[in-house]
């Protein structure tokens, strides 16, 4: 996911970004991936807590 977001960003820029720009984009993609992971983890926890007990 991080690699994909990074490549998408590279296509948009269409120029050679500086190392600082690359680092910033990778950090941004990593933060988004972590956010998605946290949401999915929370959803699994909710499903566990609210799952009907058989």
TrEMBL record:
It comes from the Bacteria. This is Uncharacterized protein. It comes from Candidatus Termititenax dinenymphae.
């Amino acid at each position: 996911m991080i690699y994909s977001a990074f490549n998408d960003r590279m296509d948009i820029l269409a120029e050679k970004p500086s190392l600082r720009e690359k680092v910033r984009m990778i950090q941004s993609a990593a933060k988004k991936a972590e956010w998605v992971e946290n949401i999915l983890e929370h959803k699994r926890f909710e499903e566990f807590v609210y799952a009907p007990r058989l």
